[in-house]
Automatic annotation (TrEMBL):
This is FAD-dependent oxidoreductase. GO terms for cellular component: cytoplasm. It comes from Actinokineospora fastidiosa. It comes from the Bacteria. One of its GO terms (molecular function) is oxidoreductase activity. Residues 3-357 form the FAD dependent oxidoreductase domain. The lineage of its organism: Bacteria, Bacillati, Actinomycetota, Actinomycetes, Pseudonocardiales. InterPro entries: FAD-dep_OxRdtase (IPR006076), FAD/NAD-bd_sf (IPR036188). Keywords: Oxidoreductase.
């Protein structure tokens, strides 16, 4: 008998499954494709505090930042965990003022944000443009390899007696007495008392099939990958405009500069946000804009070949907060979605919070801002 079926084997579904199985529940994970091959595989592996203003998401991020190294150590996995810190720079006077204001609020929330002098910036990132008006160092920002992290989480679920099924889409739920009694897949009906909707950008479709629609939309993002280089970018470096792009709900194309190296030596260049449904076309105008802005921040990149470009769909909620909790319209249906581009960083805390709520334990963070029945999320 399965206690919980988690629909979606990306990093959020994997984190929920790991936390629930660690609590002693028997868990089944189903995914229409392979684990971590959707939104998770299209991410940069960001574990960030720097891009979040004070509020519920930042609190969730702080818990997650503390949990990731602890969890990976417990699982015996490295997942290329790299606590390298981040540097946010402004290139205008207005950007400098906004960066200072954001950092001030973050410090009040417990985030380590350190203003840098021009000499300090040059010492930390020698190849960064000198045309900056302000810079802030966030020592707690980190990075990991999201596919490896997801695999580690799902491996733990299997080791505890759980099951992970690939290539098996969930198409709805079974109810009895007004509550969840099972999940229907393309192959069979699986009895269970809890179903977790962790379908990322496809969460709205599954919620609709379950009879409890929610408003979670796909938001397209693209990333460029350079050829391998000697060490060139030492931290995650991004323009202060990135924070505004994250917080915006505009459907039109928005780009902001994010540059970082990986352990393989490649440099990742982002980021873009655009609401185009599930259109996965590689758009030349987006690629060109990302490259232009990256060269403005790191001039040496003008002579570096781009090896490939890739994109993915991120689960966007209209109020920019994840959806974590039980659906009041259908007891036994739980949601863990809407993290947009922050899912990698927020995954451990999301899994922990969902498990806390399922098991009626004191929650690790206040769950009320993430509740399903808020106006921005409940679809008509």
């Amino acid at each position: 008998m399965v206690d919980v079926t988690v629909v979606g084997a990306g990093v959020i579904g994997a984190a929920c499954a790991e936390a629930l199985s660690a609590a002693g529940l028997r868990v089944l994970v189903v995914d229409r494709a392979d684990p971590a091959c959707g939104t998770t595989a299209a991410g940069e592996g960001n574990v960030l505090l720097s891009d979040k203003p004070p509020g519920p998401e930042l609190e969730l991020a702080r818990v997650s930042r503390a949990l990731w190294p602890e969890l990976l150590a417990h699982l015996g996995a490295s997942a290329e965990w790299e606590p390298k810190g981040g540097i946010v720079v402004a290139t205008t006077d207005a950007g400098a003022a906004a960066l200072a204001a954001t950092a001030s609020g973050q410090r009040e929330s417990g985030v380590d944000a350190v203003a840098l002098t021009p000499d300090q910036v040059a010492d930390m990132e020698p190849l960064l443009t000198k045309h900056i008006t302000a810079a802030m160092h966030y020592p707690e920002d980190a990075q990991l390899q999201p596919v490896l992290a997801t695999v580690a989480l799902l491996t733990a679920v299997r080791q505890r007696g759980g099951e992970v099924r690939s290539g098996e889409a969930a198409v709805g739920v079974v109810t009895k007495g007004g509550a969840v009694a099972g999940v229907r897949t393309e192959r069979e009906t699986v009895p269970c008392r809890i179903v977790v909707n962790a379908c990322g950008p496809w969460s709205a479709a599954f919620a609709r099939a379950a009879g409890a629609p929610i408003d979670v939309l796909p938001r397209r993002g693209m990333i460029l990958v350079t050829a391998p280089l000697p060490q060139s970018v030492r931290h995650k470096v991004y323009d202060a405009d990135y924070v505004g792009a994250v917080a915006s709900g505009d459907a039109d194309l928005q780009t902001s500069t994010v540059v970082e190296s990986t352990q393989a030596g490649t440099v990742l260049i982002g980021s873009s946000r655009q609401r185009v449904g599930f259109d996965d076309t590689i758009r030349v105008d987006v690629v060109t804009e990302l490259a232009r802005k990256a060269v403005a921040l790191f001039p040496f990149l003008a002579d570096v070949p781009v090896m490939r470009a890739y994109g993915g769909f991120r689960p966007y909620s209209p109020d920019h907060l994840p959806v974590i909790g039980e659906d009041p319209r259908l007891p036994g249906l739980w949601h863990a979605t809407g993290h947009e581009g922050a899912g990698i960083g927020l995954a451990p805390a999301t899994g922990r919070l969902l498990a806390d709520l399922v098991l009626s334990r004191p929650p690790s963070v206040d769950p009320r801002p993430f509740r399903v029945d808020r106006p921005a999320v409940i679809a008509a």
